[in-house]
Design brief:
Number of strands: 9
Shape: globular
CATH class of the largest domain: Alpha Beta
CATH architecture of the largest domain: 3-Layer(aba) Sandwich
Number of domains: 2
Largest sheet: 7 strands, antiparallel
Number of helices: 5
Radius of gyration: 22 Å
CATH topology of the largest domain: SMI1/KNR4-like
Structural class: alpha+beta
């Protein structure tokens, strides 16, 4: 596995390597090529979960990828869409081979509308960078919003039962 992929996945708890049978089942269930770096990753780890930057990611074991694709147990907006991961919340990640080049897309869990799919890249590494960078940007936005909303607020402490009692903190509007 290349060094960039190793660094991006260092905080993921990995499964054992898959059997050749499990890998063969995935490759025979689909009619398009998967990104080579994804194949490289799953040859070492049949599923993984944990943190990519500040974002949670669960990469499904191969049998779940095959079962989900075969049974169509999730909403799908096209026949050449194969789900393989999720963020533990409302988004799933899928390989979308409906165009000439296979892309990796983020799709709301309950959507079947192709317009809801957000392209994340054409390689597994690009997906991981997308997830990491978006989480960092969202965290920065949240921090800026928090800073802005508390600009006119002061934290004060009071000791309701005397100086040796447990303090209670509260916010109040800053005096102008």
């Amino acid at each position: 596995m290349n060094e960039a992929l190793r660094v991006l996945t260092r905080r993921l708890e990995r499964g054992a390597p898959p059997s050749e049978q499990a890998l063969g089942a995935l490759l025979s269930a689909i009619d398009f090529a998967l990104p080579s770096d994804y194949l490289e990753f799953i040859r070492e780890s049949d599923g993984a979960e944990g943190w990519v930057g500040e974002a949670y990611l669960a990469i499904w074991p191969l049998h779940e990828v095959v079962e989900t694709h075969r049974d169509r147990s999730l909403p799908v907006y096209g026949p050449r869409v194969v789900y393989f991961a999720g963020n533990g919340g409302l988004e799933l990640y899928a390989f979308d081979a409906s165009a000439e080049m296979t892309t990796i897309v983020e799709v709301p869990r309950d959507s079947i509308d192709q317009e809801d799919a957000r392209p994340c890249g054409t390689s597994f590494e690009e997906l991981l960078r997308f997830i990491r960078d978006r989480a960092a940007a969202e965290e920065a936005e949240d921090s800026d919003a928090l800073d802005e909303s508390y600009r006119d607020v002061v934290l004060e402490w009071t000791f309701p039962n005397g100086p040796n009692s447990r303090p209670i903190g509260f916010f109040r509007k800053r005096d102008s």
